[in-house]
Amino acid sequence: MRKLYSRVSPDILLHIVNKKGEITDQREDMSPPNEPLQVSCFSMPEGKTFRPHAHIKQVRTTDIAQESWVVIRGEVEAILYDLDDAVLEKVVLEPGDCSITFGGGHTYTALREGTQVYEFKTGPYQGQKLDKRFIDKSD
Asked: 51, 90, 101, 135: most buried by Cβ count inside 10 Å?
């Protein structure tokens, strides 16, 4: 798992990239416990299960939409940005790889025809105007 911290504010975790090959049979909580978007990973052998459960309804408050992607098929090149909109890192994500953005900006480009990606985001979604600030990178 690669954790990307801001260069502007080095104590702020902005992005995590986890490659499929890094997943083990030990549950790994990738997100810090204070972040609204919680992501974990683990391998499960045949027959392994967990106790059936439902989640308790509770009021949660967040001031930012956070986002995660999992590539299903194909490849994407993700560009991950710092708080000042500078490029922090470019990374190619392949099937089974996951990217998590807690802060900073991001984009990706499909590198193969038929690429498929799951996208997860904190909600509720209030529309593009209230959700996004676009980064102008015309250089």
From this structure: 101
Rounded distance, CA 72 to CA 49, Å?
23
* CATH architecture designation of domain 2-44+62-127: Sandwich (2.60)
How many CB atoms are located within 10 Å of the residue 35 CB? 18
Tokens of 44: 């499960």
Q: For the chain, what are the domain ranges?
A: 2-44+62-127
pLDDT at residue number 137: 67
Q: Which of 54, 94, 53 is nearest to 73 (CA)?
A: 94
Average pLDDT over every residue of 5-29:
97
**Average pLDDT score, the chain:** 94
